[in-house]
Write a structure and sequence with these properties.
Layout: E1 6-7, H1 14-17, H2 29-49, H3 53-71, H4 76-85, H5 89-111, E2 126-128, H6 129-145, H7 149-157, H8 162-187, E3 190-193, H9 203-229, E4 233-234, H10 244-247, H11 253-271, H12 278-291, H13 307-311, H14 318-336, H15 347-366, H16 371-380, H17 384-400
Parallel strand pairs: 1-4
Antiparallel strand pairs: 2-3
Helix pairs in contact: 2-14, 3-7, 3-11, 3-14, 4-17, 5-9, 5-11, 6-15, 6-17, 7-8, 7-14, 8-12, 8-15, 12-14, 16-17
């Protein structure tokens, strides 16, 4: 009988996924109760101090984190697997996610559906040097840092210790990027923002049709590449069956793709803009810099609409609330599967985490977002910049394949190699 070869489902949790797929540990109930208690305290605090949307966003974030962890839904590993061995399973799940997202976003953006009457707007940003350089740097950074923006959050929630280092330097890189952003946007060549729905005159109906066609084309290309390169399949992960699978076992990628798209649409209707991650990193780091005596408020990035965020509590920032929810949701999911534990750190991983985190933070600021805000949110908002972000992040991923071995990080080179 011919043997089956696999690549792992996500680098952020590869230590978990190397276990036999039939093995599932008992739930870590004390950790679950602790996470529920923290969530309850945060909900009460937000209800008393913030707007009504904030506790809702905390719950949405929790569901996002739960979904990301249980499906091991990655962006970093999806890009790496496709560029290294030609496996496009996760890329196809991205296309399902984006197809559902544009289907939901189109009427929301066209008719301004909102739960709180604040109005809605998508992520549509300019195309130019800032975007190209930033997304390329982000692509390299996520392959060195071991996770993207969402991947860093859910890996932290799952207890992967090195990702705490990645997150710290992600924040530092975001602050540096915020300080340098005027140079990249004002001094370097940049164009206009292009919406497939509004700028082109296609309308949301025409932009939706074009988007669905593009997603189908990309999915077909991944299948052609897989057949040509005889790509290995993704490795199974610990799971169970029946209703228990919803709470404890691994979820199918396509089910998670649909869930993430729905949750992003709910985020759009709740706070008036799609799911984002990295603005909060710049905010956290900039507020810390202010405490250390650095006059961050004088920076152009913290003028205008962003000035109020810098002066307010971090819990007034809806992106912060979502991020905390993602971490808590991933923590609950890992504990429910009996998988939470702090992992060891190798010296090479530390260096890669530092450099990768800095590059992701800096790149995300230049590119107007990360894999969530620019790629997921941008494409779902019918913005051309989201597609360019994806192309440049893939290019950065390819370049990073030659850098990973320098830090002792694996790179799959054949069918019998894991990633």
């Amino acid at each position: 009988m011919a043997s089956t070869t696999y690549v792992h489902a996500t680098g952020a949790q590869e230590d978990v996924e190397k276990r036999d797929s039939s093995t599932l540990n008992p739930p870590q109930m004390k950790l679950i109760y602790g996470a529920l208690a923290v969530t309850a305290v945060l909900l009460v605090y937000l209800l008393q101090t913030q707007e009504a949307m904030h506790p809702i966003l905390l719950l949405i974030g929790l569901l996002l984190g739960y979904t990301l962890f249980h499906a091991r839904f990655g962006f970093t590993s999806a890009f790496r697997r496709f560029m290294s061995v030609g496996n496009g399973q996760a890329i196809r799940s991205h296309m399902v996610m984006l197809a559902v997202a544009v289907t939901l976003f189109a009427p929301i953006l066209a008719f301004g559906f909102s739960f709180f009457g604040t109005g809605v707007s998508g992520y549509v940003f300019p195309i130019g040097t800032s975007l190209i350089v930033g997304s390329f740097l982000f692509g390299i950074g996520m392959q060195l840092g071991g996770g993207c923006a969402s991947g860093t959050l859910f890996a932290v929630g799952g207890g992967r210790t090195v990702m705490f280092i990645t997150l710290l330097f992600f924040i530092i890189g975001s602050v540096i990027g915020a300080a340098h952003l005027p140079f990249w946007t004002d001094e370097m060549p940049n164009g206009q923002a292009i919406s497939l729905a509004e700028t082109t005159g296609l309308g949301y109906g025409g932009a939706w049709l074009l988007s669905i066609a593009l997603f189908g084309l990309i999915a077909w290309i991944t299948l052609v590449v897989e057949r040509k390169r005889k790509a290995p399949k993704m490795a199974p992960v610990p799971t169970t069956s029946g209703w228990k699978r919803i709470l404890r076992g691994s979820w199918p990628l396509f089910a998670a793709a649909i869930a993430l798209a729905v949750l992003n649409a709910l985020t759009l209707m709740t706070r008036g803009e799609p799911w984002g991650v990295t603005f909060a990193f710049a905010l956290w780091g900039s507020q810390a810099a202010e405490l250390m005596g650095i006059n961050v408020s004088a920076w152009e990035f913290w003028q205008g609409d962003n000035a109020a965020a810098l002066e307010a509590s971090i819990f007034a920032d809806t992106t912060t609330v979502l991020n905390f929810g993602v971490i808590l949701g991933a923590f609950m999911a890992s504990a429910a599967g009996g998988l939470f534990r702090f992992t060891g750190i190798k010296p090479g991983n530390v260096a890669a985490a530092v450099i990768g985190g800095l590059m992701m933070g800096y790149g995300a600021r230049l590119a107007f977002g990360c894999n969530i805000g620019a790629y997921f949110g941008g494409i779902a908002s019918f913005s051309l910049h989201g597609y360019i972000w994806a192309v440049m992040a893939l290019a950065g991923t390819f370049f990073a394949l030659y850098l990973r071995p320098l830090f002792g990080l694996s790179v799959p080179k054949s069918k019998d190699t894991f990633c």
